[in-house]
Design goal:
Largest sheet: none
Number of strands: 0
Number of domains: 1
Helix content: 55-70%
Strand content: under 5%
Number of helices: 4
Radius of gyration: 19 Å
Order of helices and strands: HHHH
Distance between the termini: 22 Å
């Protein structure tokens, strides 16, 4: 399994932001009324991040020898969950930012301003989810030395 890196996360986030911005612009020009992002969406993003951190902490304890009862397969599944949480968070963050940016021309209109603010709050909640996924994935890494180095790197013994 490859570790998370910033390049694919940034690429996915930017792609979702651009796509959401374009779709929002097309829909508004077509006469659609933009909808508020519900507060429950924000709560679910934060809850998913918190749950991922909780599971990641279990793996961290397992790797430090404090939780020997944890199954290795479960630890691997939690690492995959952490990566998925980071990717889903960055997609939601990009989409929420794109949605808000697609409406920013209507900032002077009160109801549209509320929609933009709800989209920005959703982006913040998704940022929390993304950071939680990244942190949990880092906790799931074994060791910290030569075991984490990519194949063929200088840290690998000859």
């Amino acid at each position: 399994m490859q570790h998370l890196t910033w390049r694919p996360l940034t690429t996915v986030g930017l792609a979702s932001a651009v796509l959401a911005w374009l779709l929002t612009g097309l829909m508004v020009r077509g006469g659609a009324t933009p909808l508020m992002v519900p507060w429950s969406f924000d709560v679910m993003c934060v809850a998913a991040g918190a749950a991922t951190l909780g599971f990641g902490w279990q793996v961290r304890q397992y790797l430090h020898g404090n939780r020997p009862s944890l199954d290795g397969l479960r630890a691997a599944r939690i690492a995959v969950l952490a990566q998925a949480t980071a990717y889903v968070g960055v997609i939601i963050m990009g989409a929420s930012l794109g949605y808000g940016l697609g409406l920013v021309d209507d900032w002077g209109h009160g109801p549209r301003r509320d929609v933009i603010i709800s989209a920005l709050v959703a982006a913040g909640a998704a940022l929390i989810m993304t950071i939680a996924g990244i942190v949990a994935e880092r906790w799931c890494r074994h060791g910290g030395g030569a075991d984490d180095a990519p194949e063929g790197s200088a840290a690998e013994p000859a």
